[in-house]
Design a protein that fits this description.
By secondary structure, the chain is mainly beta. It has two helices and 26 strands. The strands form six sheets. It has a five-stranded antiparallel beta sheet, with no helix packed on it. Strand 25 and strand 26 form a beta hairpin. The protein is globular, with a radius of gyration of 21 Å.
């Protein structure tokens, strides 16, 4: 089901004859483009054009280029040549810059693809493309026949030429930095000066890479997190004891950006069964890659970005453990709403958007127009979007005032309609 372009506007209330505080400024969500397959990271060039990576929808497996997914119940991950890099001009014109890049996705749904994962520009305007993998790297060149996966490239945007700068899949095979299972999935890229920084959500590591072509400079494992509370698991087959399941405690880093002070800010997704309110945000020293936790208590983070004032924005992929709302293979069974959480320079937090069009997002960047740009429905084939949210809003009044009560009722009604639409969509997609 293709979603039509739309703009959601909340809290457009005008109340006459009542002495109440000034109404809050309206927040808005706008669809920039849709019909994408697994859209991921993005960045703006110096002219204000937006470049977006599409991880694609994988293959049908008829050529044998399939491996078992290590994180989705061993559903086949099959390769196909439909990953791409697209350009969205300021007037909205969409151009395919590079096509036919390798995509590795769950078959036959095309969900949760790995392929073109992120695009970033350095201060000189040079472009760099990151590709994911999401599997055992020893199968990349043999079974999958996809040597372009799991790498960082310098891109010639005029010719589409790619120059390899780092091979993370090869490094994972040789050294396995976190010392756990052998998996690589480079997920997000940040650039500071002449160095690129990559988080690998499969290898649970952070890399620094010289952009002059001299290779990987440094690597560090992202710290694990031991959770003392009892974990909540999905319904398991008869006879399977959840307490005996292998709980990895791996971090699964998914987002990275350069902080105003020059350090690196990294977000994590957490490990299966994706416990709620347990995801962290780290600060990494760009030279030593030593880390510290600067915020905690989130759910399945997939991106971080800063505004010019130094406020941090964190993107929650889905507000609940993913298995509660969507089946592996892309069947939506519940509410896949996500959230954007603003963390002020003083540490205060405010959820500036939740649901109402924001669903299963992955990757967030602050645009030159002051809006937040997000890859929406980023794990689905054919219904992915790029959306933008205006964060420059005043806080919605608390329901203690007259207008606050009216606002709460309006938001509640909107939420009820949203849940109804989500259930109808789930029925359609299940069929």
């Amino acid at each position: 089901m293709k979603l039509k372009s739309f703009t959601l506007t909340l809290l457009t209330l005008c109340i006459a004859g009542v002495s109440v505080p000034k109404a809050a400024e309206a927040a808005s969500l706008t669809v920039v483009t849709d019909g994408l397959s697994n859209p991921r990271g993005m960045d703006f060039d110096s002219s204000g054009n937006l470049y977006v990576t599409e991880s694609g929808s994988g293959g049908d497996g008829k050529d044998g280029r399939c491996i078992a997914s290590p994180s989705a119940g061993y559903i086949p991950l099959c390769a196909g040549q439909n990953g791409s890099l697209i350009k969205i001009a300021k007037d909205g014109t969409k151009t395919n810059i590079i096509s036919d890049l390798t995509s590795l996705a769950l078959s036959p749904s095309g969900e949760q693809a790995a392929g073109p994962a992120d695009i970033k520009f350095d201060s000189l305007g040079n472009a760099y493309l990151l590709t994911g993998l999401a599997g055992d790297p020893t199968n990349r060149d043999t079974v999958l026949k996809s040597p372009d996966l799991g790498k960082l490239y310098k891109v010639d945007l005029k010719t589409g030429g790619l120059t390899t700068l780092a091979d993370f899949a090869k490094y994972e095979t040789a050294f396995n930095p976190d010392g756990t299972d052998l998996i690589s999935n480079p997920y997000a890229l940040a650039i500071k000066g002449e160095t690129g920084y990559v988080v690998d959500g499969g290898g649970n590591s952070i890399y620094s890479v010289a952009l002059d072509g001299s290779g990987i400079k440094n690597v560090a494992a992202v710290p694990k997190k031991t959770i003392d509370k009892k974990l909540e698991f999905p319904k398991l087959p008869p006879g399977v004891d959840p307490t005996k399941l292998p709980v990895t405690q791996q971090s699964v880093p998914t987002g990275i950006t350069v902080a105003p002070d020059g350090s690196l800010t990294v977000s994590e997704y957490t490990y299966f069964p994706y416990p709620e309110k347990e995801a962290r945000i780290f600060s990494f020293d760009p030279n030593t890659l030593q880390s510290k936790v600067i915020a905690d208590g989130f759910t399945q983070l997939t991106g971080v970005t800063y505004d010019p004032e130094g406020n941090l924005y964190a993107l929650q992929h889905i507000n609940h453990s993913e298995w509660k709302e969507i089946q592996q293979g892309g069947i939506i069974t519940g509410d896949i709403s996500g959230s954007v959480i603003k963390i002020g320079t003083d540490g205060t937090r405010e959820t500036i958007w939740s649901g109402d069009g924001l669903e299963a997002g992955s990757g967030i960047t602050y645009g030159p127009d002051g809006d937040l740009y997000i890859a929406n429905r980023a794990r689905l084939a054919g219904t992915g979007q790029v959306i933008k949210i205006d964060p420059r809003v005043t806080k919605v009044p608390e329901p203690t005032s007259s207008i606050g009560l009216i606002v709460a009722s309006a938001l509640g009604a909107t939420s009820m309609l949203k849940r109804k639409r989500s259930k109808e969509l789930a029925k359609v997609e299940t069929v």
